[in-house]
Specification:
Elements lengths: L1 H33 L7 H15 L7 H19 L7 H5 L1 H24 L4 H12 L2 H12 L3 H28 L5 H11 L3 H9 L3 H16 L1 H19 L10 H14 L5 H24 L3 H33 L1
Helix pairs in contact: 1-2, 1-3, 1-14, 2-8, 2-14, 3-13, 3-14, 5-6, 5-15, 6-7, 6-8, 6-15, 7-8, 7-12, 8-9, 8-10, 8-15, 9-11, 9-15, 10-11
């Protein structure tokens, strides 16, 4: 009897979730293919495509259980698997001075974003997402922290779009500055690129467009920035927990989200060489695909009017933050490197 009930329940869940899940997967596949021909990442295309479809067409209600599943459950798995990209052995490779410079850059960028969000009269959570996305690792950092921050869907959409647009622009501009204006050697050039561009793909493309030494240096520096996602996530959890306790006396004690525990545990795999490189690569790729699916689902639920209202100010503020981040990195390189 219980076996029949289990099978019946499973079939019912498939019926409920499958239409929206397949619809979201189709959007992710289109975004993935478009990314082959466009100079922006699949994640940006995915969330933009989702916003376009969700606002132009009235989506049938039967799609939303699957869309919600993609947005919440698949996003959680994307964050968990993201942990395999964190190898704590990077710290040994860089040395203490470089590590401290990277940490200083991350702190400066986030604080600058929070200060500017007040000056530009932007929502605190949106300003924080822009700061985190610029400071650490773009879409991945925004996805890993948006639930902790309690950001709205349209804020996530704005932050992802702005941060990735600026990173794509920087991917072309920084190599030109290094080649024709800045008197940097290969190690300094690699540090600048790795310490400022948002996504790994942008760092790799910009670094190796100059030469291999710059490319490898930039990638290592970028990996260290990604590594800082773990202490950042823990710090945000503590900060927002304390903030909620002050504003809501009756709030229940919140457990650490399972996806954060999974994220930290997965980071142990590369750090202690617990699995081979091919499995780490597989998990890393799976994380990227899951993130793409989740971002398409988030896009379906974003109101374009909200994005447009906040997007213009966010783009201006994000640009100033990115410029400030680059100038801070330049000063650090000139003074310490």
């Amino acid at each position: 009897m219980s076996k029949k009930y289990f099978i019946s329940s499973m079939l019912k869940n498939i019926q409920i979730y499958l239409p929206g899940l397949m619809f979201t997967l189709a959007g992710a596949f289109i975004a993935f293919e478009l990314a082959r021909f466009l100079p922006v990442g699949a994640v940006v295309i995915g969330i933009s495509l989702g916003v376009l479809i969700g606002n132009v067409f009235k989506l049938p209600l039967q799609l939303f259980p699957g869309i919600n599943f993609s947005e919440k459950k698949i996003l959680s798995w994307a964050i968990i698997l993201m942990g395999v990209k964190l190898d704590f052995n990077i710290i040994k490779t860089l040395g203490l001075q470089s590590v401290l410079m990277i940490i200083a850059g991350i702190i400066f960028t986030i604080i600058l974003a929070l200060v500017l969000s007040r000056l530009f009269k932007l929502n605190f959570k949106l300003g924080l997402l822009l700061g985190i996305g610029n400071a650490v690792c773009g879409s991945s950092a925004i996805a890993a922290t948006e639930k902790i921050i309690g950001a709205e869907k349209h804020q996530v959409g704005v932050a992802v779009t702005v941060v990735n647009f600026l990173g794509t622009l920087g991917m072309f501009v920084l190599p030109l500055l290094i080649k024709y204006i800045l008197p940097f050697n290969d190690l300094q050039a690699g540090f600048l690129i790795g310490d400022t561009l948002q996504a790994v793909g942008q760092v790799v493309a910009a670094g190796f467009s100059i030469n291999e030494i710059v490319g490898h240096t930039a990638t290592i520096v970028k990996m260290m920035r990604i590594l800082m996602l773990t202490p950042l996530v823990i710090s945000l959890m503590f900060y927002f927990h304390q903030r909620r306790k002050k504003t809501e006396d009756t709030i229940k004690e919140q457990a650490i989200p399972v996806f954060i525990i999974g994220f930290i545990l997965m980071s142990l795999l590369p750090s202690f060489h617990l699995v081979s490189a091919k499995y780490l690569h597989f998990f890393g790729q799976l994380s990227h695909y899951f993130l793409l699916i989740a971002m398409v689902a988030i896009g379906f639920k974003i109101n374009f009017k909200s994005v447009w209202q906040q997007g213009q100010g966010a783009l201006l503020m994000g640009s100033v933050v990115f410029l400030g981040q680059i100038l801070f990195a330049l000063l650090m390189i000139l003074y310490f490197k």
